[in-house]
Design goal:
With about 500 residues, the protein is of the alpha/beta class.
Length: about 500
Amino acid sequence: MGDTMWELVESTADVHPDRVVVADDHGRHLTSAGLRSAAEVAAAGLSDLGIGPGSVVSWQLPTTLEAAVMLVACARLGAVQNPIIPLLREREIAHITAEVGTDLFVAPTVWRGFDHATMATTLGLRSWTADYETALDGSIAMRLPAGDPAVLPAPPTDAEACRWIYFSSGTTAAPKGVRHSDRSAVASAESLSERLGFGPDDVYPIAWPFTHIGGIAMLVTALRTGVRLVVFDVFDPMVTADRMAVHSPTMFGSAQPFFRAFLDAQARHGDVPLYPRVRGAAGGGAPIPGEINRELVEVFGIPGVCGAYGLTEFPNATCEWFDADEVGTTVGPAGPGVEARVAGGELQLRGDQCCLGYVDSSLDAGLFTDDGWLRTGDLAVIDDDGRIRIVGRLKDVVIRNAENISCTEVEEAVLFHPAVADVAVIGLPDPRTGERVCAAVVPEPGATVDVATLAAHCIERGLAKYKCPEQVVVVAAIPRNPMGKIQKDAVRREVLSILDG
C-alpha cells in the first residue's frame, strides 16, 4: 500500500473508494475517495498560501473532519506538519512555533470561547483561520484553505524524511518536539491494526484530540482495516456518550474519563443496552484501574480493555487484550515489529515507529542508547512470557485525562504567586480523570492559598487550564535532598497523611 502516507491514501481510495473512513456528529462523512479529493483541494489551498515541500505548517484544529483532511493535505504536499492539541495556549504555542520555525499557523478563528486568531497575531504568526463556531448544516464543505488540485506538484516519495513534528505532552517544563517520518508515523498503527481486530463493520468514536500522535495512528488503522472513525470536537460526560450511541460503536476508547462516561450513560439508560454492538474497549495514554475494567466487563459483556503502551517518541509499542485482573499489572508484549529490553531497570525499545529524534538535536543523546535503542524513561520488568510490566516512571508528570502534565511547569507558575513560599506538584488518584493535579504549598507567613486563586494565577501566566492545580494541600515545608531536588515520594506521603486526617 506504499511507503508514504499519501501513497496509503491513494491506494485505499483506488481499492475501496466508497468505504467511509471518517464521519462526524453533524451528518458529514468522508469516503476513502472523498478524503483523497478533499485533501487535494486543501493541499492546493495551502500551496496558494506559499506552502510546499519542506514548509512547516503548525495546525491547531479540534477533532473534526477538517483535522483528518488537514493531516492528509500536508502529507500530499510533503510539508512538515506540526499538529498541536487545541487546549494549548500562548505560552506553549510560542515555544512550539519558535522551535519548529512555523511558516503557517492554521486554526479556528474562535473555538470554545478562545480566540486563536488573536493569539496568532499576538505571537506574530502568519496564520489562516476559519469559522468553527457557526453550526454545520450537514454539507461536506471543509473549513480549510481551498484551491485547484491541478496546480499541485508531484507527491513526495521519500518515506524517511522528517514530515511530522509532534510535541511531547510535557514531561519537562518545555515540551520537546519529536520528529517523525512517514514511515515511523504510519508504523504507529501496526499494533492497532493487527491486535484490535478492526474490520469494515466496526465503528470507533473519537473525542480525544486528533492532533495527538494517536490521530495519525487511528487514521492509518481506518484506511487499512475499514473501521469507521466518528469524530467529536467536544467531550461532555453528560452528553457525548449518549450521542456516540447513535452511531452504534463497536469499540470504546480510550481513557478512564471516557470509560466512566459510557458506564454512567448506560446506568442512566436503564436495562436496555445503549451500545448493543460494542465488543471491546481500547485503552491508552494512562493506566486503567482494575475496577473500571471489571465494571466494563460486567456492564457491557466485553472481554475487557485492550491496552496500548507508547510514547510520542515511540507510539503504540504494545497492544493486547487484558483480563480484568491483569489491567494495571502489564501493558502486554511488544507489538508487531517491536523489540523491547530492560537495561538498568529502564524499558528500551526498537522498531519502525521509533522517531527520528528531537527538533533540538542536543537532546538526542539522552533519548537513544549507544547501540540505537530508544530510552523510554519508564522502569519496567519483562516477564518470561514477554509481557512488559511498568513498575514506575522516571518522568515527573501527572497523567490527567490521558494528558501528560509537567509537574515542573506547574510548579514554576505557582511559585510566582505572592502568597506561595514553596510548592511541590504531584498527581493523586482521581476516579474520573485518572490523576488530578495537587499542589503541596508552603504559604508565605500570614497568607492563604486556595484552588481558585492559584488556577486564575496560572492561567494569567499562560498555563493551559487543564494543567492548573485542582487541589491544594498546605504543608509546613517541602522536603528536598542535599542537591535541592524535591523528594516527591516524601511529599506524597505527607499529603496523603494530611488528607487521611
